[in-house]
Amino acid sequence: MTSFLHGTGVAKADRAGGGSLRRIILSTTAIAALAYGMSGQSGWSQDLIINDASTPNPTVFDSDQTFDTITVEDGGNATSGYFVFDAPVTVTANDALILNSTETHTVGSGEGLNVGSATIKSDLNISNGGTFSVTEGLETLGTVEIAGSSTANALTVNGGTLSVTPDGDLTVTGATDIGAGAFSNDGEFGTGSLTVTSETGSFDNTGTATVTNDFTDETVGNTVTNTGTLNIGGTMTVDGAVSQSGSGVITATTGASLGSLSLSDMSEFASDGEVTLGTLNAGSQTSLSGASITLTGDGTLDGTITGDLEVSDTTEDGSALSVSNGGTIEDDLTLSATTTAETDGVIFTNDNTIKGNVTVGTGSADSTNLTLINTNLIEGDITSYGVVQSAGQVDGDVTANAGTLEFADGASVGGTVTVGDAATLSLGTYGNSGGPAVIITGDLVADGDISSTGANALAIDGTFSSSGTIEADTGEASITAGTINLRDGTVLSEVNGGTLSFSADAINYGIAKTITDPTLNYDLGVIDGATVTIASELNGDGHDLNVTDGTLSVDADTTQIGVTTVASDGIVTVGSGIELEFSSLTNDGTVNLGESATLTGTGNTYTNNGTTNVSDNATIQDAGAIENSGLLRFEGSATLNSDTNSSGGEIITNTGTLDLTTLTNADPTVDALDDLTSTGGSALIQLAEDTELTVAGTLTNADGASVTIGTDATVSASDDVVNTSGSTITVGMDGTLSATNGVLNDDTATLDVNGGTVSGALDNSATVTFAGTMTGNVANTGVFTVDGDSTMAGDFDNEDGGTLTVNEDLTGITTLTNTGTDSTVTVGSGATLGATSLVNELTATLDVNGGTVSGALDNSATVTFAGTMTGDVANTGSFTIDGDSTMAGDFDNEDGGTLTVNEDLTGITTLTNAGAGSTVTVGGGATLGTTNIDNSATFSSLNNSVVSTGTFDNETGGFFTNAGDFDATGAVTNDNQITNTSTGTFDADALTNSGTFTNTGGVVGATDPLIVQNSGTISNQGTGTFGAVTVNNTTGGVVTNASDATMTMTALTNAATVTNQGMFTAEEIETTGTFTNTDGTVTVTGLEGLENGGTLTNQSDGVVTTTLLDNSGNLSNLDTSVFNAAEVTNGGPTASLVNQGDFNVTGMVSNTGSITTSGTFDSGLLQNYLSFVNDGGTVGGTAADAIDNDGTLTNQNAGVLNATDIDNSGNFSNLDTSVVNTATFDNEGAGSLVNQGDFNVSGAVTNLNSITNTGTFDAASIDNDATFVNNGGIVGGTTPGSIDTSGTLTNQTAGVIFATDIDNSGTMSNLDTSTVNGSTFDNVGSTSQLTNAGTMTLTGAATNEGNIDNTGAFTALSFDNDGSVDNDGTFTAPVDNSGSFDNSGTVIGAVSNSGGFDNTGGITGDVDNDATGDFDHDGTITGDVSNSGAFQMAGMIDGDFDNFADGTFTIDGNSTIDGALDNMGTLENDGSGLTLAVTDGFINTGTIQSLDMFTIDTASIDNTSGRIDLGTDDAADDVLVLTGTVAGGTLAFDIDLGDSTGATDQIVLSSLTGNVLLEFDTLDSGAILNDPLQVVDGNAVSALLTSTGLPARSGPLSYQVTQSSEGVFVNSVIDPGAAAVSGNLALVQSLIGTIVNRPSSPFVSGLAYESEDTCGSGAWARATGGRAEATSRTDNGQASLPATVDADFYGFVTGYDFGCFNSAGGEWDVAVGGILGINSGSTEQKVFEVGVSGADIVLTDNQISTTRSDFDQRYVGGYVAAARGAFTGDVQLRFENTDYEFDNESLGLYDEETSSNGTTLSASISYSHALSDTLTFVPTAGFGITRTSTDDLVFRDNSGTEIGRIDFDDHTTKIGFVGGTLAHTTIAPSGTEAYNSFVTATYYEDFSDDMTSKYRIGNDSQDLSTDPLGGFGELSVGLSYIKILDGEVGAAKQFNASVRADARFSDDVEAFSITAQARLQF
Fold it and tell me: CA nearest 269: which of 234, 303, 221, 219?
């Protein structure tokens, strides 16, 4: 302050002295003007002319002045006129200012000069803080310096200099024209356009210059220099030079055309348009970017060039352009020339990096004058028609279509090199030869020539293919590749001593080659029809042979070949006696094996897919398998031997042809020395006459293969012959098929023996046709036909579906077993089947048609018999008598057997029909005569039949049907079923029916009514009469009463079945079975009514009348039947009710079963949970009630269904002409509606599943979420409603839909000639589909988020497309497209795009790029822009820009929005150092994504609901500069917390306000930060912050966000809960010292009696317990936060001392003693979540865990206590050890232990002051000092691994206290005891320093400190007692005791405890 005043004083003194301040002197004119007032006064001139004749001179302005014009001019004298300012005033010249003097004029700080127009010919300085405003044009001819703020409408620099200093700001709203003057800008300069028109004019920018439109310098000789920032909104055109250095940036938005460009230092030149340059000089730190860049002159490129670069020679000046690149070209490079002069063209040398592709010339022009020289790196591809010379690296492909490709030694190509037939690859002509190889990582394809001069090497990682000339000249040309293809047309040339050498893994010869080397060093291939000959013995050394196209002639033994492959056009010929050895051979062509030649496979498989010709005595052997799928032709004896190494499982496989028919020697034999498998429909083994094939193993013929064995030919197998899977073996006359282990013929195979022999067992499951000899057993499950007399030795098992047909005699069988499923043996007429025994079982069939079966028959299958049988018959199958037959013996029909007697059967003694499924049937006219019948199966006696028997026992399982005359002379017991038909009479003594008894019009019980105990079935039919008193049908029986029948009873109890068609009367019916009333009358008169738990049917004209109906079974009211009930319950999932008549229920119908009605159905309420069908009937005809359908509801056949409301979650069908009338219809869940009739809904329809309409469908609204099909019907024809469909809506077959609003989020189709008429249409959702081939007319708006295919007519008021539209018809609507719109028709209206829009018409109105739109605009957008998709920008928008929520707004160049920007989507930058300027405000409710360095220049950003995101690149180094104020929203950052220094993205701004969410993407974490990381750098940060994304707490370590006015910071925080553990321990130690061990003084008492012995000992004990709550603050480095400990404690101490009383002359009482004590307790400490308040870290109210601890203290010590007079005092020394155990798993404390050791020194002094005889006041003071050392406390994760620890510093606790006690003493009358009641007040003060510690994580640490307890008060009340003892307790003389209660309190301490103590004095 002193300096400031002193300086001010000096300044004032100078001004007052006049030495430095001009006097204010005006000319006479000026004085007069001022005296009378210039402004606004008429009659006075307002022009001011200042010259050297002015008086005074200079003219001084010290107040605001206004003139029309101000003219300053020279008058010819030595001094010119001029003006000065003497105050911060403003001078205005409304019309003009003309400065034309030699003086310098200055506008200082705070001073202003405002003029209409200005012509400056003298010097003018606008100082910093001064303002110079020109309304019209400004012309400078002198020297003008602007250090303040200046504006002008237009600027002309015609001479002199105009300079804007670093503090200056010049804004020209119109054009700037630089003529003969010089303009330099070092501050802020803005203009509409800038033009340099004079060769002597210049523009030099070192500041920031913004040219809104074009920058033009048409002078060739000028140089535009820039070291600052030059932003050009239009095009930059400079005919001369542009020189840029330093960190200068030029941005030419729409393009640039420059005579020459020089870039140096770190300057940048950027454009979104085309850039055309003459010469270019770009320094190493520079960057040049543009949409495309054309260089037409020489250049030196050492910087970075972004954008496609074309170097083009456009002039025929006799010399080629020379351009060298020492920098980086980011994109593609093209070399071109438009002239044909031989010396013209381009030479481009790349000495650094080209990242894009390079094109040298074109195929349509001579490009040999274009040369690319690469000495370093090209990352892309090279395509050349000229000359390419490379000594460096090319990462991509190199294609030389013409010209020359030259590689220097050591050059490399990362891709494929292609040399066209018009190009040449040259080695040794560029660079040196003899050096490192040229490396090609990909392939080399050379259709052109390759020449090598000198020693050169090519190293190719891929394949080298040649079809041209390869020439080596004067040195070795070495070519190394993975594969070398020397194709047809290749010429190998060695001249001038040059040699060619090839090295590869594989060499394929397309040219003739003879192999004479002893060892093969590569895989040998034959291609392109060449011939390769192995002329001498060759060791293949494991290499492969590949004969692709051509011939390999093996003329010498060749061994150790690897894989051999013969393609379809390949031929391998092995000479006679020659061996070819290989690991495997695959032949798709031809292999010729000469006589005695050998093919030897050593390791894998010989595979023949082509033709192998095997000469006589040749051998094919393989250690693996031999596989033939082609033709293996044998011309003599031969050997096939697979698995020569006996590894197992490798056999001979044939899927082609093994041909033994072309043999030339006599009786040849082909030996297959392993298993032979012939498989597949193309497989054939064919043997000519007298040939033999022997198989040393198993011969398998499978999958349609064939084996043909000719006459006297033999096929033999040492193991098995297997014929399977549709295959065929034919054995001709005298041919033999032999198998040691037998022949297996299965799986649709065929074995045909025509006069031959099968030797061995035969297992047939397929087909055998036999006429010959079989020497073994036969097992047949197939078809076996004996077509000629045959002999078989052994057994014949016909089983499992086998068929044996004996058409001729078959003899010799030992046992014939016909068994299994559907097996059949047929014996024809006259044929004999002879076997010792016959077994016909399972489902087999024996058919005897007039033949004879000899032997006993055991039948459990099927027998059809008409003949003679000798022996007994045991039948458990089917036995039918089709002709009169005779049998001797018994006939046992049992166990499912069937005996059918169609003709007379006599001779049976006992007929037993028994067993499950057994059946006996006696046909009409047939007689069955037996002595006895035991029937426990099925027995039928037909009309006119006679069954005569003594007894008839129809046992369990028995079925007896009588239509004839049944006469049982004994009793009838029916345990199963008896039927008495209308022609039958049934006579028996009694009937006990536990089975089924049916009377079908006959007579039962004619004499007396029966008492029937029925547990079976009773059926009274026809006109049958059945009378009974009672029918007890409760044991599962059946009772049936027919239409003309009568059944009367008192009660029916039915647990089975009752059927009535006649009259059925009962007082009550309880049926749990089946009850059917057809045309009958059932009357139930009792109160119990009818209870049906089974099946109840009322049909035809039946009438059922009952009081109550409880149906849990099946009930049918059919036809015109009438069913009357008061209430119906159709309950249970199996309950069924069918109504065709009149069903009247006066109450409710509850249906959880099935109801079908075609009649009239009335009820109060219908609740259908399963099935309800109205089939032409009327439901709700009387009064419409509600229907709740959860099942199936069908209205059909003109049915009428009336309801108030229908809720359908089942299946609802309104078919044909049926009618449904309802108020609402909800088709819910899995509900389905099919409407063919009239469906009327007066309210809403909701469809969640399926609706199909072919009729009329009317509703107020339709909500379709599933499937709705209008198939030729009319929807909404009466009253159109709204339609909301998210499912499938189809309008087809001329269907018509009328609607108000249509919302489609599913699939909607308007097909053929169908019509849709509506108000609005919304195609909602990306999967929605509208197909319109008809007419769709909307009077309102239409929207589309899915797909629309329009080939018809579509008309709407407006159209909003978020999906895909394919319009091939007429589309009349304004289009808002956010999807894909393909319009080949006509669209009328504005287009708003948020997707892809293919429009061939025009767009009128604003542009709206919405949703997922990708907007790319080539022209100017006039009007506002709204974007919800993708919008790229590097230019200017003249209007507002709204970037909606889904919008992506990418800034890829410096850009300006001359309007407001409202970003609700994503705003991002693509490139570093870019600036976006927004003039009229910026609101961000979306996301601003910033990478690298990005600046947004705007006054303010309202980010309240938005997001600014720097955290998208996983790099914590991005910086976003926001020049204005940011309010609210989300700020997102990458942050690295992995080490103590940390790193973060940062936002630099002016101010930050509002509610702000900070969102972090943490790249690494776990460190304790040295200093907070600043994520926001601002001058005024006052936002309310929240944050997310910082790492979750790791134990006690967390990270918190704080803020101050200067910014926002991230801090590492040791959780107060963990830091408070340190505080916890400190508090516990303080509590022990201040509370637990209080009172601390020993319990020593003076003597209350007189004694000569003044010395003695005493013992005492003290116990205490209580609870305390203490709060302290712990500083964790970022904040001092409170933590509260709740402690429960108890303690016990005992002491012993020796004292002397009245010693030292009777003045002192002194005692010395020792103590031993313990203290224990537990604590709880609530841990609260950490929060932030501004720059402070605070605790919230959210408790997240609790820290619990236990402590145990042990201590020993000694004391001295003394008293003198009224004074007492004591000193105590104590040694303490305390153990702690802490538990809080959320912090990482898992019962973690630590301990401390301490030493305490304490003392107190008191003074006793008697207030009366009974009242005493005792003041007290004291202290306690404890020194404590504590072990570390370790924090761990749940696996026990340490995550941190607290390192406690040694600490000294210092406690002081003062207090006072008021005591009242009462002496007992005995005089030996007294009571003392007291109250005490004490104040404690903790003087301790903070307890300090460190929380450590590895080497990182955080200091912690905990405040001491501070001060607190204590109130105590108590009672003490003293008694003089006289031998009452041993030697004790005195007893003292006391008890007290203590309460402590302060802001931080609350405690209560009780202490009791006692002492004996000896």
Answer: 303
